Fold each of these.
Amino acid sequence: MGAESHLPETGGLEALRSAARECRGCPLYRRANQTVFGSGDSAAWLMLVGEQPGDAEDKAGEPFVGPAGKLLDRALGEAGIDRGGTYVTNMVKHFKYTRSERGKRRIHERPNRAELTACRPWLSAELAAVRPRVLLALGATAAKSLLGRDFRVTIDAGVPFDAAYHGLAGVDTVLATVHPSAIVRIGEGAERTRRYRGFVADLRTAANLESTPSRPRRLQ
Ligand code: URA
Ligand code: SF4
C-alpha cells in the first residue's frame, strides 16, 4: 500500500497530477469519483493543506470549492491574500465517506493513519515541486500529520514553526489553523464570528511570514 509506486520519475506538477489520477495506493480510490489533486500557482509562496476532498470537491475534481472553500476564499480575501497566488491541496487526495441512512447524502469520514501515510508521497512531491516559503495546515488532521500527534490546533494555531525541524524539505515555515469546515459547522452567532476572526488572523500571520526573513521567529 502507498502512492510511491505511482509517482512519475520526472516532470513537474502536471506530471504528478496526471499520475495521481491513476493512483491505487490505498482503497479510497474505489468509492470516490476522482483524484482531487492540489491546484494553484506552481511557484506559490504559500501552500494550504486541508484534510481530504469533500463531496463537492469529489464531483468537481478541485480542492476547496464547496462550502469550506467558499469560506476560505472570503477569509483569504480579508487577509489580503490572493488565492490565485497560492497552492491549495489536501493530505489525502480521495474523498472518504459513509452513506447517510437513506443513502442519499455522502457524509465525510476522517481518513485513518494508514490512508494518510499511503497518500503522503503526493504531498511530499507537491512540496518538492512548488517549494512554498510557508505551509499552512488547515485543521487538526493536517496539523497533526505535519507537526506531530501532540499538536493542538486550539492552542498552537498561528504559531510559526521551523519546517526543517519537522522534516518538511523545501519549506521555510509551517503553521496551522482551524479547518474552515469547523467554522462552517458552527451556526451563525458570536462563537462563529470569534473563530472566523481567529482564522483570518492566522492567515494574516502566514501572509506576514512571506515578507519577513526566511527563518521563522519562533523555533520549536
Ligand atoms: N475540506 C478539506 O479538507 N479539503 C477540501 O478540499 C474540502 C473540504
Ligand atoms: Fe492514492 Fe491517496 Fe487516493 Fe489513496 S487517497 S488511492 S494513496 S491518491
Amino acid sequence: MHFDLKAVIFDMDGVLYDSMPAHDLSWREAMDEFGLKYLPNEFFLQEGRLGHATINAIFQRNLNRESTSEEEEKIYARKSELFRQYNNDETMPGARETLEYVQQEGLIPILVTGSGQPTLLDRLATHFPGAFTPDTMVTAFNVKQGKPHPEPFLKGLEMGGNLQPNQAIVIENAPLGIEAAVKAGIFTIAVNTGPLDDSVLKDAGASIVFHSMPELTAAMPEILHLTRTIRV
Ligand code: MG
C-alpha cells in the first residue's frame, strides 16, 4: 500500500471546535430532564453517532425498548437548545493553522461530521473561511447511517472527487469516528482532546494518537512527508 494523498478529512466537534464540553453537558441535562440514566463518559464514547442513535441506545438500556421518532425529535430538540446556550463558539487552538497548512500543500480539506446542529455548521464559513464548501461537507443531513458506520467517510471520499481510501487521511477525536474511518479503509490519526484514555482511541483503530491540535499542527509537515515517501 502507498499513499497518493489528495485530501485530509476533518471531524468537527473536538477537532475543529472545542465544543465537546458543551455537547456533553447539554446531553446530560437533556437526559436528566427526561429521567434517563447514562454511563460515565457516555457522550464522549457515543460521540459521532447521529443524535437519534445516541438517544435510541439510551432508551434500550433504560427502558428495554427503541425510542420512537417523536421521542427522538423532542429530546434532540431540547439537547440542541441547551447546546446553543452552552456552546461558546471556541475553535480548537491549532485547527485553523492545520487547515491552512493542508490547503497550502494543495490538499483538499473535507469535513465529515455526525452533527446536525446548525449552531456550528452555519458558522464554519465564518470561523474557517474558505476551508469548506457545501460540496466538501458531510453532515447528519446527507447520510443514512452515521458513525461508526463507514458511510460518512465513504461519502467524504466521494465528495473529494471519487477518491480511493489511500488518497486521504482522517483526523478524528472520537472512538466511533475512528472506527468508521478505519472501516472505510482510511489511515486515521487521533487527536485526544477529551477525557478518554489514549487506549480507547488506539483500540478503535487509530494509527497515531496526538494530544492536542497544536501537537498535530507541528507534526503535519512530517506526516505529509511520510505519506509521500513510505511504502507499506
Ligand atoms: Mg469529534
Amino acid sequence: MLTKAFGAQSPTSALAPMMIDRREPGPDDVAIDILYCGVCHSDLHTARGEWPGVKFPSVPGHEIVGRVTAVGGEVSRFAVGDLVGVGCMIDSCGHCPSCEEGHEQYCEGPHGFLQTYNGWLDGSGDNTYGGYSAAIIVAERFVLKIRHGEADLAGVAPLLCAGITTWSPLRHWNAGPGKKVGVVGIGGLGHMGVKLAHALGAHVVAFTTSPSKVQDARDLGADEVVISRDPQAMAGHARSFDFILNTVAATHDLDVFTTLLKRDGTMTLVGVPSEPHPSPSILNLIFGRRAIAGSVIGGIAETQEMLDFCAEHGITSDIEIIATRDIESAFSRMLKSDVKYRFVIDMATL
Ligand code: NAP
Ligand code: ZN
C-alpha cells in the first residue's frame, strides 16, 4: 500500500514528503491510521546518520498513537475504531529467554528486536519506516491499548518511548518511597522520568544545565532541582542517591554524578550520544561499590503497565504540537535543549 510519509533521503538532506510502501495486513496484523507521533532525540540521531548503520531513506518516529482501521482474521484484542499505540519495537524472535520473559527489547535472536524504524526486515533486506507517516501495519503482539481519553491522545504519544524508557529502569532499580532518585537532563525522556519517579513515590532531584527549567522541573514533580554545572550545589548531594537516571543525549563527564551515589548506588545511562563519554573514574566506582548501568526502552507487558499507570494517575507528556513542515526547526531546537518537553507531530498536517 502506498502511504504518505515524511523522511530523509540522506544524512545531509532535510526531511521532506515521500511515499513508502506498507505491506497488506496479514492474519495477525493491526492496520493503524496514525494521528500523532512524538519526536524523540533518537529520530534526530538517526535522520542525521549519527549512529552507525543507519539505512536511508529514513522515516523516523516511534512514539505512535492512532486508530485501528482494519484487523486480520486472527486478531483478538483489537477492533476497528480502537485507539492504540506503537513504540520502538514491532517484532522480536518470540522464543529466546528474554522474549519468553517479556523483555523483547533484549531479544537474543540473530537480529535482536525489530525496530519500528531503521529495522532490517528479515529476508527482504528492506528498511522499516516509522511513525512520521499516515499509517502503519503492526503485528498484534506489539500493539498497545490506550486507556486515556481521546483529548489526551497527543500527550500520550511520547509515553511510547520517553515514558517506557524511563519507567523500565525506575521500576527495575526500585524507585519508590524512601528512595532518593536523580534524573539528569530535563528533555523528552527526563521530564517523563521526573513525573514517573514522583508518581512512584520517590524523593526526586532533577539535574539540569538549563536555569530556565528550574521552576518547570518543580512543577513536573521534582522535590529539588540542581544546576549540574554548579559544583557547590552538586557537592551538597555527595554520597546521597540510591539511583540516578541519566538521559543526556551528549557526551559529558559522568564522574560528577557517580560521586553523588551512595554506597551500592547505581547510575543508569539511557542517552546514546554519537561519541563516547570520557572514561569514568574507576576509583569513584570501587570506593562505594557504585555501578554504572544501561537500559533500553522496555518490554511490551511493562509498556502496557506504564500506559495503564499513567491513565490511572492522569499522567501525559508536556508537549508542543507541530506540523510535519516544522520538523527541521524542531530538530534545531532539540539540539539547543529548547523543548518543553516533547514535540508531537499532528499527522493530519502530513
Ligand atoms: P532531549 O529531549 O534532547 O533531552 C536531552 C536533555 O539532555 C536536554 O534537554 C538537556 O537537558 C540535556 N543535555 C543536552 N545536551 C547536554 C550537554 N551537553 N550536557 C548536559 N546535558 C545536556 O532528548 P531525549 O529525546 O530525551 O533523548 C535523550 C537521549 O536518550 C538521546 O540520546 C536518545 O537517543 C536516547 N534514547 C535512548 C533510549 C533507550 O532506550 N535507551 C530511548 C529513547 C531515547 P537540560 O536542559 O535539562 O540540561
Ligand atoms: Zn525514542
Amino acid sequence: MEPQIETGYPPKAPWRVGDIEIVPCSEHIGAEVRGVDLNALTDEQFAVLHDAWLKHLVLLFRDQRLSESGQLAFSRRFGDLDLAPKDQNGRPELPDFPEMAVISNVVENGRAIGALGSSEAVWHIDMSYNPIPPKGSALYALEVPPSGGDTGFLSCYAAYDGLPEALKRRAEGVTIKHDATLNSTGQQRTHLEPAHDVRTSAGAVHPAVHIHPETGRRALYLGRRTNGYVTGLSVADSEALLDELWAATTRDDIAWHHQWRVGDLVLWDNRCAMHRRDAFDPGARRVMHRTQIKGTKPCN
Ligand code: OGA
Ligand code: MN
C-alpha cells in the first residue's frame, strides 16, 4: 500500500493578511509572498512572514532589489547570522560582508568569485555536517542563466509522515553521521581526509528524526546521501537503511522546483527542508548571494 501523507498542513489555498498575499507553490512545500518590499519591512509584516515561513517551509519573494546590507538586514530579522564559508584560499569571498556567501560559477582573473560552480548539487541540508547547522538560508539571485540551475526543495515533514510505520520506528531509534568531506556538488573538501571509512570519517552526528524547535513537528533529517552512516551499525546495514530512507524521501510529490528570475529571494527553513540544484551551462553566468541564520542543535 502507498504510504498516506497527512495533508492538512501547510495551507493549500492562497491566504492573505492585510496587503500580504501568500500563494502556495506546491502541496507540501513553498509559497510565494506578494506585497512586501524586503527593504522596508515593518514588525507586523515580519510577524506574518515568520508565521508563513514556519507553515510553508520555503518562501519566495520576487522582484526584490537588495544590496548586500539590505539582504543582511532582512536575514538578521530571523536571528544572528553565521559567517560565510571561506574561499579556496581561506579568505572571505566578500571581505566587507563576512556573513555573505557568493554562490556562483563565475571565474574572474583566474579566481572563482563564489562556490558550487555549475554542476548539479545533490539533495542536502545546509551544513548538517556541523554540530549546529543554520536554521535557515536566504538565497538572492543577481544573475541567472537562461535555463538550468533550478533549485528543488522537499519537505522533511512530509518525508517523515509518509514513511511506512515500521521504517518510521527504525528511523526514530537511530542517529546518522553527516559527512563533512564532500560538498554538495561532490567535490572533496581539501582540508579533510577523504572518507575511506564512513564509520570514522569527519562529520557530525544528528538524530535521523528530529523535532522542529518552533513548530514541534517531526522531520526526517538525512543531510546528504554520500558517505552518510547510521551510527553503531555495520556499514552494510547502514547502507541498506539509508537507501530505504532516501528512496522513501526523494519523491517528486513532496518536492517543488524553483526556476529563478533576477530579483528572487528564496528563504528556506533548513530544519525541515532539503534542497538540490540542477546543473547549468558552464558558459552562462549565475551569481547568487546567500546568508545563513544561526540554528540550534537538532534534538528529538
Ligand atoms: C546553497 C545551495 C543551491 C543553488 O547555496 O546552499 O545549495 O541553487 N544553493 O545555488
Ligand atoms: Mn545548500
